[in-house]
Design brief:
The chain is built from 3 helices and 2 strands; from the N terminus they run αββαα. By secondary structure, it is mostly helical. The protein starts with a helix and ends in an 18-residue tail after the last helix.
Length: about 110
């Protein structure tokens, strides 16, 4: 899995490098109509836009996973509480010897209908 990550990172890096080399034209970027614009290379504008979109997508995934993380934290708390209860019950059982042996009582017989 780690090799796959490095391979994907390498391929994406090569793609970004080739993209940057082939898009060196300067474009004017104006963010608001009240401020003067900026002259930036085309590759910088596109890669910055893709990076911002990637970051924003990660933030949205993180926010959407908040309920799952909350449920996981609650489940961990429940497991700890139940393990504590189980340990207490085992200690109580060991100290009180509350286990009673099963007696050999005969089972009831069934009457057959003829």
């Amino acid at each position: 899995m780690n090799i796959f990550r490095w391979f994907v990172t390498f391929v994406v890096s090569i793609f970004a490098l080739l993209f940057s080399i082939s898009n060196l034209e300067v474009v004017g970027v104006q963010i608001t109509p009240f401020h003067p614009g900026y002259d930036l290379p085309l590759y910088a504008v596109i890669l910055a836009t893709l990076s911002l979109g990637f970051f924003w997508g990660g933030v949205m995934v993180w926010f959407n996973g908040s309920q799952t993380r909350k449920d996981l934290r609650q489940a961990k708390k429940d497991v700890k509480r139940l393990e504590k209860d189980l340990d207490e019950a085992r200690k109580l059982d060991e100290t009180s010897n509350a286990i009673t042996p099963v007696t050999n009582t005969p089972l009831p017989t069934l009457k057959s209908h003829k």
